Amino acid sequence: MGILDTDIKYLSGIGPKKAEILEKEVGICTFGDMLYYFPYRYIDRTQFYEVKDINAEMPYIQLKGKIVRIEVVGVSRGKRLVAHFSDGTDAVELVFFKGLKWVVNKLKPGAEYIVFGKPSVYNGKINLIHPEIDLANETAMAFAFNMQAVYSSTEVLKDNFLGTKAFNRIQYELIKQVNDKIAETLPQYMLDAYKLMSLKEALLNIHFPQDNDHLQKARYRLKFEELFYIQLSLLKQRSIRLEKADGFVFAKVGELFNRFYEQNLPFPLTDAQKRVVKEIRKDFGSGKQMNRLLQGDVGSGKTLVALLSMLIAADNGYQSCIMAPTEILALQHYNTINELLKGMDLRVGLLTGSTKKSERTVLYKGLLDGSITMLIGTHALIEDTVQFKNLGLAIIDEQHRFGVEQRAKLWSKSDNPPHVLVMTATPIPRTLAMTLYGDLDVSIIDQLPPGRKPVVTRQFYDSKRLMVFGFMREQIKEGRQIYVVFPLIKESEKMDYKDLEDGYNGITRAFPPPEYVTCVVHGKMKAADKEYSMNLFAEGKANIMVATSVIEVGVNVPNATVMIIESAERFGLSQLHQLRGRVGRGADQSYCILISGDKLTTEARKRLRLMVATNDGFEIAEEDLRLRGPGDLEGTQQSGLALNLHIADLGRDGQLLEYVRGIASDILSDDPLLSNEKNILLRKQLVLQQEKIKNYSLIS
Ligand code: ADP
Ligand code: MG
Questions:
Q1: Regarding predicted confidence, which is higher, 513 or 101?
Q2: In angstroms, what is the span from residue 488 Cα to ligand 2's centroid?
Q3: Do 280 and 305 meet the contact criterion of CB atoms below 8 Å apart?
Q4: Atom of ligand 1 nearest to the CA of 558
Q5: 265 and 128, same domain (yes or no)
Q6: 97: which of 87, 215, 301, 668 lies 20 to 30 Å off by Cα?
């Protein structure tokens, strides 16, 4: 227990009540948590503008001057307080809509203030709405620093006197107490070699920068360390895994594989598919357990690669399974694979949440006696009652939907961990893959099957719906099918279903039966109804499928050429890309139509624009990472990939990440166990690190 483990309530000025709020709001429990609660920006306190020079185009600015007069104007909801502020060059209005009483009490006409805010225009006049405002002498007294740190706060924190100013004071107090006791976390030889600031100095400067140069060095040092230890930890685990020679050996490619390849394969493999199959075969023969992530854009043909791998397992006498995230997808894999295996004497089982008890009994028996070679299902597969005779290969489709624990359970079904192939259609940017899956080997299918035409994407506002309907009619006349998708966001499920219902009614009015057939699929339907609807569409008996985003994953209907996404502004980029991937699977030109409201946020506008501009899943994923940050990246949250980065930003610090990965890799190849005297600190830190971020990427 070091001083950094001290409960935050013992810091002077905090106490039990504030401590409780800090924990609840921002997860700060200890001195250390507080010390690592970094500012997100800084105010340059050396820069003052003159009122005569300001305009509404300026970002946040700082002014120094006096309050001339205060007045309350407007009534009820329009009621606001206007403080007329002047610095001698000109006057500007400071406007407050909230906390009027507090503001009135605080502002003293005649005293000198420092004001910080964003200029805007209202009624033709320049004003600052809810600026930060402090007595000039107070600001100067409290912190004799040129750059003032700004901390993110919440409404609750602010209401409890824990706004950004309070954080300044708290950090000041904290640093005073702990700075001398901060132990260095990187060995001296690294600080020297990579020109890094000491931890002590970095922590001081991150909260109270001496100047911009010190601040940049502090940030660099802290990011370096953060990314370095993650990489060191991942690379170390990887080498441990590779050392253990406990993988099943699938030595041969046998009869089943060859028979399939020669007689059943419906089309030649793409070069990318061939390459990936080769990579997998190499792993199978290595005697080590395979841990491979297969990335491939939607429609790139991952299913076939999965099946070929399963056939190799079967050739070597092992069972295999595919775990899919939804029943629809499991069923589709089951049908696809049975179709592909036609004429071959292989038993394939299907197990989902809605498999009947009687069928289960039969399945369980077949799995135990080995007569079922391949099992396809949902997370029902990981239930304890499911026992295999000899599971040799586990394939997980659309990996990001599964939690880490669920995956771990799957491996425990066999004495030796089976080979693992994780397939994902969510392209993961390189930097993120390196961080989250540093322990996995990565294969990429970077090529679509031949003859695919890129999907044409267009954005339309709600008001242009009739035009879109007209286009739909044309496509249907040509024999094509159409998806219409509505957003489904958990928090507002009720509303979403209403959207779906209204949407469905609108569609059936515009496309009345019996001329047109429209089917519906959503998450709340019974499995059997879902299946019925899906089949209607898959068999070409329905022209239009109205759905929530449940179809996002995996549905394959090559004759569907139009994907209409309603309220497209409510979807994330990678979700939009996944949905778009449902069309463009056949030889015909396909279209994706994004329908949105006309009031869009800047971010939403950017997302839609990018979708129109590119079909490249990796480009979209990179941009998604930049726009939203990795914490929000599709799937990373569900799978518990709480990286909890304090300062590094995977979207921006990709280069640094690769750099430190190289350093970590060099250190480990020199000293795999980190047992050299000079690396002892690294080993110690690694243990602490692993306690902190449980290693989410380790899947064996
Ligand atoms: P995903 O990678 O999204 O899972 P699928 O495995 O569902 O993609 O394949 C998409 C479609 O492409 C399927 O209809 C499949 O039959 C077809 N396909 C796969 N590989 C090839 C190939 N080498 N040549 C032509 N079509 C292919
Ligand atoms: Mg798929």
A1: 513
A2: 21
A3: yes
A4: 14
A5: no
A6: 87
User: Is 585 a member of any domain?
Assistant: yes
pTM: 0.65
The enclosing domain of 334 has a CATH number of 3.40.50.300
CB atoms within 10 A of CB 591: 21
Domain boundary residue among 425, 445, 465? Answer: 445
Q: What is the pLDDT of residue 697?
A: 37
Residue 630 and residue 651 in contact, taking contact as beta carbons nearer than 8 Å = yes
Q: Is 91 helix (H, G, I), strand (E, B) or coil?
A: strand
Position 141 confidence tier, pLDDT thresholds 50, 70, 90: very low
296 lines ligand 1 (CB under 6 A): yes
The residue segments making up the domain with residue 571 are 456-614
Q: Are residues 470 and 346 in the same domain?
A: no
269 lines ligand 1 (CB under 6 A): yes
Domain presence at residue 107: yes
Check: CB of residue 93 under 8 Å from CB of residue 128. yes
695 pLDDT more than 50: no
**Rounded distance from Cα 281 to ligand 2 centre (Å):** 20
Check if 301 has its Cβ closer than 6 Å to any atom of ligand 1. Answer: yes
Instruction: Specify whether the CB–CB gap between 327 and 315 falls below 8 A.
Output: no
Residue 566 lies in a domain: yes
270 with 410, same domain?
Answer: yes
Tell me: do 437 and 463 sit in the same domain.
no
CB 592 within 8 A of CB 560: no
Query: Which residue has the CA at smallest separation from atom 23 of ligand 1?
Result: 269
Ligand 1 site, residue 582, Cβ cutoff 6 A: no
Question: What is the arithmetic mean of pLDDT over 493-509?
Answer: 81
